[in-house]
Amino acid sequence: MTSPDPAPNAAALAELAARLPSLRLLTEPSDLEHYGRDWTRRWTPAPLAIAFPAAVEEVQAIIRWANEHGIALVPSGGRTGLSGGAVAAHGELVLSLERMNRVLGFDAIDRSLTVQAGITLQAAQEAARNHGLIYPVDFAARGSCSIGGNIATNAGGIRVIRYGNTREWIAGVKVVAGNGELLELNRGLIKNSSGYDLRHLTIGSEGTLGVVVEATLRLTDPPPPSQVMLLALPDMAALMQVFALFRARLKLQAFEFFTDVALRHVLAHGAQRAIDGDHSFYVVTEFDAADESAQDAALAAFEQGVNEGWIADGAIAQSEAQAAALWRLREGITESLAPHKPYKNDISLRIGALPAFLEEIQALLGREYPHFEVVWFGHIGDGNLHINVLKPAELADADFIAQCEHVTRLLAGVLQRHGGSISAEHGIGLVKKPYLEGTRSAAEIALMRGLKQVFDPRGVLNPGKLF
Ligand code: MLT
Ligand code: ZN
What we know:
This protein is an alpha+beta fold. Among the domains are: 103-218, Uridine Diphospho-n-acetylenolpyruvylglucosamine Reductase, domain 3 (2-Layer Sandwich); 226-334, Alpha-Beta Plaits; 341-426, 2-Layer Sandwich (Alpha-Beta Plaits), CATH 3.30.70. Helices cover 37% and strands 20% of the residues. The chain is built from 16 helices and 17 strands. The strands form 3 sheets. Strands 10, 11, 12, 13, 14, 15, 16 and 17 form an 8-stranded antiparallel β-sheet that branches. Strands 5-6-9-7-8 form a 5-stranded antiparallel β-sheet. α8 runs antiparallel to α10 (292-307) and α13 runs antiparallel to α14. The longest helix has 21 residues, at 397-417. The radius of gyration is 23 Å and the shape is globular. The model has no long low-confidence stretch (mean pLDDT 96). It binds D-malate and zinc ion (ZN).
């Protein structure tokens, strides 16, 4: 798409600057490096420049300019993505939504918040809280990821078990399509049976169909007071039993797991140990505990788990600070693994399919990764596992990735047989592209390509991502 010869693109960039004199454009090497990458760190950033539009009209003008000059655009939020969806490594113009980060309005009757796409998840959550309500999508990157990026990947996180994914909370979205046309999708309506829901097509489309510029977020009541518990378990089978037990007895807000290997890394990164001894699996769970009967139910569930031999030990937070410390054990994992250049899996299965899948996959990974450290953690209550493989320091990046990709092909085959998905919440981007066919049928992919053509006829939006 983008011309390999930088000279015409430099001339096109000068033309953009002349066309939009107030547009902020950066071309310093350090900026190209910073804005050309996400958290994957696998590709060398090499964008043409970074553009920071301040208004929807500027986004439209940039997209029209890209069409005229045949220049690829990479829409960019907080770049906390883990699949390479926001990587610009081939002379693309990065279209950063960073300056479009305001709350545009709150509607008390509709209980909705309208925001620009560049606002961080945390700022949107705080704005909701200031009105006595919550925006319940939540995960560790809240302080840096943007709502636009959350929509582009249909982000999940740690509260999906109670509240669902981002998709459930988008009442309306404004998107600039690949031809520069502004689409106002669903207009905040609760009911709208008027044909195809284009809003849902754009959610999870990874910036390939349009650039999200505004969103109307649905808000809800804060949950009742909760308790946070850490559990230590002997094995994976116990994990599934404890999940079934706790889900049946308590109103769960979160149910997250990690292994002893994850714990070792997160403790080395500054988190505080809360349970002594060596245990293979851990769970951080949060549940409604407004009154004594709910707290008694939690203790009864815990005791039953102990009596059955599924729970080896536990700790319950007695204060907000202790709750935060228990959460840190789970939420700090990604950061603690980052120095080891992890190869990340983000797989999804129906919960009912998990036990058979897990048995097969534990054997496969044990066989295929005998020399690598493999870290299991994730949102087990949603059927979403993050299996991270750590790079041994002495192994070259390319060799490590080649070996991991070989195993991922096998993993994708097992997933396909068990009806799972190669990406639960991180998106396909560049990282998972080779495995899309194991998750989506040829007919589905052909339809997706057709939709791409309709929304973005000249292919300027995030080309090379997804497929
Ligand atoms: C998380 O849930 O912590 C992230 O989505 C997983 C990861 O870093 O692989
Ligand atoms: Zn996750």
